[in-house]
Amino acid sequence: MCYPIDSIQKEIDREAEDLLKREMPKSWIFSNLDQREDYGLDGKIQVINDTRGVYSNFGIQLKGTKDKKNISNKHIRTYLKAKTLNYYKNISLTLLIVCDLNEEICYYQYVDEIIEDLFGNESYLENPNRRIP
Fold first, then answer.
1. Band of the pLDDT at 71, cuts 50, 70, 90?
2. CB 79 within 8 Å of CB 53
């Protein structure tokens, strides 16, 4: 008989989400976005303040890896498509979170900072795939 198959990538995605939820500040409320509608954002974080008021929110792109060749000297590499970076240029604040599932460490950088670093290199946004150092 044939059954649906759970891919390794989906397992890695779940592990990354679980790690993020364990490691994120208590003042963050994570909401997973419908994966059928994933166009570069995997979730939303709402931030609560000391009086329990929700005062901020931002989108997240969550990636997980177990591939040791992408991890070195407390740096982690991942790939983002140029068209996804172009999309990020047009939306509000987005945080890229990449989880090293071997060491259980989450690395993060605001996508605006990545785009700002690349802005002088327009060819970057025209190429289909690039590695983010």
1. confident
2. no
pTM: 0.78
Rg (the chain; Cα; Å): 16
17-38: per-residue pLDDT in tens? 999 999 999 999 999 887 666 6
Distance CA(59)–CA(98), nearest Å, equals 14
Crossing angle of helices 82-89 and 111-118, rounded to 10°: 110
Between strands 75-76 and 71-72, the pairing is antiparallel
Distance of CA 132 to the CA centre of its chain: 12
How far is the CA of 129 from the CAs of 14, 55, 94, 104, 123, in angstroms?
A: 24, 35, 19, 26, 11
